[in-house]
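Shipment paperwork, digital attachment
Item: protein structure file
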Amino acid sequence: MRATLLLAAAAAGLPCAQAQTDDTAPFYAGASLGASRVSNIYRQPNATNDDTVVSTGLLGGIDQRLGRQHVTLDGTLQDNRYSSNKDLNNRSYNLRGALNWQTIGNLSGTLSAKSSRSLADFNIGNGIDPIFRKNIERNDEYQAKARLGVLTRYTVEAGWTHREREFSAEEYARFVYRQDTGSLGVYATPGANVRLGLVGRHTKGLNPRYPVGIAVDPGTQQPVIVSAANDYTRDDIDFTTNWATGGSSTLNTRISRSKTNNSLDGLRDISGTTGAVGWNWRPTGKLQLNVQYSRDTGQESTIQAADLNRVYTSWQLGGDYALTGKISLSAKASSSRSRRASESGVVVSDAMDDSKFYNLGLRWTISRGLSLACQYDRASRDSSIAQYVYTASSYGCTGQAILY
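Attachment content:
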């Protein structure tokens, strides 16, 4: 699985069809065509704004070894067309590239970049009224890592990560950010199946337009949102483990002592314990299961547009089963929950938010270059604020053809 392809518009919440390639092929190119039926597009309480989305796509990639170096590049471009809500028509994409490099000695590393563009969630919560127009979200990430001690018992690793997020809708200004994270860690392998790590991380970021109040425009006499820049920092000390518990099972953990500081007085600083646990298990050659759990703040969590001063607890359970050599079944369930005490007298901050997502998919690999994937999704949210409560579902199929 080397390229990710959106089945339909991101607003539909549909999971991804994927391109399968032969590891010996230096490149691939292909196209896709998908259709899906989406209920409650705008994620409203007790609403029935259904629509049909047709998506056409192009995809391609390169996988090339140059001596000790390994270059990979994958990309997908989607054109998403709505049958009724034509103002939501959009083009989405996913791009990903990496260079894994290694010297003659024990020095190695990775340079990587990824970028995505899609429709944002129409009902995102976090004190923002639902919007009913096209809102484009873009995420970019650049990363560099260097390791000293590739095949030794001890490894030193240094890293840098830059991330950016943008939205076209002004209402989502609080989720716009730019941040840089530097890290330095030491890893030890006391046994053949255990790897321990101690890592220090420092993050410096900026929310350029965080809303701080509402004022009246003297010219139009209309209310306008007043924004201010919020500089924030985060410091973490991570203890990580990677334990191969057996030939078919791997357990990964991270426990961190984290502290976040914001320059705006209206934002609550957070200090406490965060972390994550992941378990992968392959009991048979046909069945694979995985479980993930995390507790972290907004931008470090799995929530795509989470508020930075709220703690999120999320879990995910997934599985894949090969019914035959060409037909596979997949299932996934996930949940995210947040709580936040009020700050600066803003009662809406007391909101409880609990989101759930379920997916069931079937994939048929017709031949090496042809495949068909169908799936059903259901998403729901429960909240202490009535306008954020909704239930939505979607179903659809995507056909894919790839040339090597």
